[in-house]
């Protein structure tokens, strides 16, 4: 196995350890990742923008902190999603023809935190145009394919990031999530993806809030420990943030991974059909197998589901989406000095932009209040409302397991059929109940525990209490140890799964 291929199998911690011990330099890691991108990404389409010279220049700079003071991901190659955080001087297209060639003068707080943690940005990963669809097939750059089957979707909108991590181009990559955009591509591509609690990570300085708090920033990764280490590095408010998540009770997320749950969790699971009225048997099987595994690990597992369902909340949710898309396009129009025109956008994006421009303030606030009432109802499910155990005590649940999507990764082109409204309906059906965690602000993750007979990964969705990512990380680490997944890699140049030993 070549040097570059050996690195392809390692998570970020393991790669950084090679630098820490002096076996490799930071430049060695970056050059190996660049070689993989140049060799493998032509068939994947995961990378939108490259900035190799900038990253290599950083690698040649003095090492900075003493080795013992560096973070666990120091020197690790990394991709930013081409949606959201910016890098001064690096093209930012948001997956749209409208912004082709746009180079922002200002970077983002989140980018600074990634780089302060030692992550080295090699470029940007492809995204759905303005993050609209749960697939990454934008007309500006082309489709990002699923590394396990090149005829299928990598998911979206963080599909470029998930495909790059699944294929071993980089061990961890930035992703964000306003309706499932971390968890859906993580499920499709067989990597780990956690959406943090609302306002756990900063969005500034350009904005303080996106779509009434639906959006959250984090990463997709090969391992649970990489995800926890990144969230430790980027968590916390920035000056001027309008609100922020509660402190981490466990101290650090890395500690939660290392120590595990430390107690018997009470876990609910549900395989109810989503807004499309159906659930693929593979997705139901994935949930039931995960529930059984949790029981084997000693947790209390109960089949139960909250009264609130995403089916009942689609319309107010889409009001926030239309407002968010319209606001984002208008903001970038001001920054770039460009005037939005229909021919510069995909049909669905333009329809949402136009819809957002015609929304009334009263209609927007009505949608917000409707979703906030539903959020209180869903939060009550975790706190045990309606379920009393003697003398009025409430037990509640630590975690709710369910499907990430209504089916495994669909064929490319699935979401481009029909009118824009039909495309949106199909997308909502595919997303299943996943957007509920955005609505409530709760942390949620996709854990790659199941694989179909055809070799497609199917993630299991797990949602925790507001502010309690630590329990999710601890449980994920347990599951990862019981059913490892990081050794699975798609074979170079081959669309089907090839399993390797680490």
Low-confidence stretches: 388-393, 493-502
Class based on secondary structure composition and strand pairing: alpha+beta
Rounded to the nearest angstrom, the distance between the terminal CA atoms is 11 Å
Helix share of residues? 25-40%
The dominant shape is globular
Q: How are the strands ordered across the major sheet? A: 1-3-2-8-10-9-14-15-13-11-12
Quote the average pLDDT: 93
- What profile does the largest beta sheet have? 11 strands, mixed
Count of beta strands: 17
Helix count, DSSP H or I runs of 4 or more residues: 16
Cα radius of gyration in angstroms: 21 Å
Q: Strand percentage, roughly?
A: 15-25%
Write up what this structure looks like.
With 502 residues, the protein is α+β, with helices and mostly antiparallel strands. It has 16 helices and 17 strands. An eleven-stranded mixed beta sheet has the order 1-3-2-8-10-9-14-15-13-11-12, with helices on both faces. A two-stranded antiparallel ribbon has the order 4-5. A two-stranded antiparallel sheet has the order 6-7. The termini are close together.
Summarize the structure.
This protein has helices spanning 3-8, 12-20, 26-44, 52-59, 109-116, 159-166, 183-189, 224-234, 253-259, 281-296, 314-336, 347-358, 361-383, 420-431, 436-440, 469-482; strands at residues 47-50, 77-81, 120-125, 137-138, 142-143, 145-146, 149-153, 172-177, 192-195, 216-221, 266-269, 300-303, 399-403, 444-451, 457-464, 488-490, 497-499. The chain is of the alpha+beta class. It starts with a helix and ends with a strand.
Write the layout of secondary structure elements.
Elements: H1 3-8, H2 12-20, H3 26-44, E1 47-50, H4 52-59, E2 77-81, H5 109-116, E3 120-125, E4 137-138, E5 142-143, E6 145-146, E7 149-153, H6 159-166, E8 172-177, H7 183-189, E9 192-195, E10 216-221, H8 224-234, H9 253-259, E11 266-269, H10 281-296, E12 300-303, H11 314-336, H12 347-358, H13 361-383, E13 399-403, H14 420-431, H15 436-440, E14 444-451, E15 457-464, H16 469-482, E16 488-490, E17 497-499
Parallel strand pairs: 2-3, 2-8, 11-12, 11-13
Antiparallel strand pairs: 1-3, 4-5, 6-7, 8-10, 9-10, 9-14, 13-15, 14-15, 16-17
């Amino acid at each position: 196995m070549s040097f570059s291929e050996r690195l392809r199998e390692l998570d970020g911690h393991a790669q950084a350890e090679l630098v820490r011990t002096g076996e490799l330099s930071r430049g060695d890691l970056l050059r190996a990742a660049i070689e993989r991108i140049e060799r493998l990404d032509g068939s994947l389409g995961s990378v939108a923008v490259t900035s190799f010279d900038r990253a290599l220049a950083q690698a040649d700079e003095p090492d900075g902190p003493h080795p013992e003071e560096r973070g666990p991901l120091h020197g690790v190659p990394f991709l930013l999603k081409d949606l959201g955080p910016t890098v001064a001087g690096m093209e930012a297209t948001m997956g749209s023809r409208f912004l082709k060639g746009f180079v922002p003068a200002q970077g983002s707080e989140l980018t600074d935190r990634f780089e302060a943690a030692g992550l080295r940005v090699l470029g940007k990963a492809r995204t759905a145009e303005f993050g609209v669809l749960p697939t990454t097939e934008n007309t500006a750059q082309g489709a990002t394919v699923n590394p396990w089957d090149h005829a299928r979707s990598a998911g979206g909108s963080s599909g470029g990031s998930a495909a790059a991590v699944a294929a071993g181009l980089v061990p961890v990559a930035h992703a964000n999530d306003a309706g499932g955009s971390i968890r859906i591509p993580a499920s499709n591509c067989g990597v780990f993806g956690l959406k943090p609690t609302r306002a756990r990570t900063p969005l500034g300085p350009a904005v303080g809030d996106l779509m009434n708090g639906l959006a959250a920033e984090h990463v997709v990764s090969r391992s649970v420990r990489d995800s926890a280490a990144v969230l430790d590095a980027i968590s916390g408010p920035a000056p001027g943030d309008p609100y922020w998540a509660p402190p981490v009770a466990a101290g650090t997320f890395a500690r939660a991974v290392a120590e595990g749950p430390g107690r018997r969790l009470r876990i609910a699971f549900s395989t109810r059909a989503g807004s499309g009225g159906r659930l693929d048997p593979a997705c139901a099987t994935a949930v039931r197998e995960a529930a059984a595994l949790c029981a084997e690990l000693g947790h209390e597992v109960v089949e139960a589901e909250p009264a609130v369902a995403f089916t009942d909340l689609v319309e107010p949710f889409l009001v926030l989406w239309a407002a968010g898309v319209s606001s984002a396009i208008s903001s970038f129009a001001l920054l770039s000095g460009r005037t939005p025109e229909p021919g510069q956008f995909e049909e669905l994006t333009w329809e949402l932009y136009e819809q957002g421009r015609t929304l009334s303030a009263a209609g927007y606030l009505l949608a917000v209040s409707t979703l906030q009432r539903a959020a209180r109802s869903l939060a009550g499910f975790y706190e045990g409302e309606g379920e009393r155990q003697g003398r009025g005590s409430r037990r509640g649940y630590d975690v709710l397991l369910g499907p990430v999507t209504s089916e495994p990764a669909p064929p490319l082109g699935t979401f481009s059929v029909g009118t824009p409204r039909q495309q949106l309906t199909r997308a909502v059906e595919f997303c299943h109940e996943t957007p509920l965690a955005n609505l409530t602000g709760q942390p949620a993750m996709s854990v790659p525990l199941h694989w179909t007979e055809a070799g497609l990964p199917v993630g299991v969705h797990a949602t925790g209490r507001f502010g309690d990512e630590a329990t999710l990380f601890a449980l994920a680490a347990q599951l990862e140890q019981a059913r490892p997944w990081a050794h699975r890699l798609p074979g170079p140049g081959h669309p089907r799964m090839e399993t390797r030993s680490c």
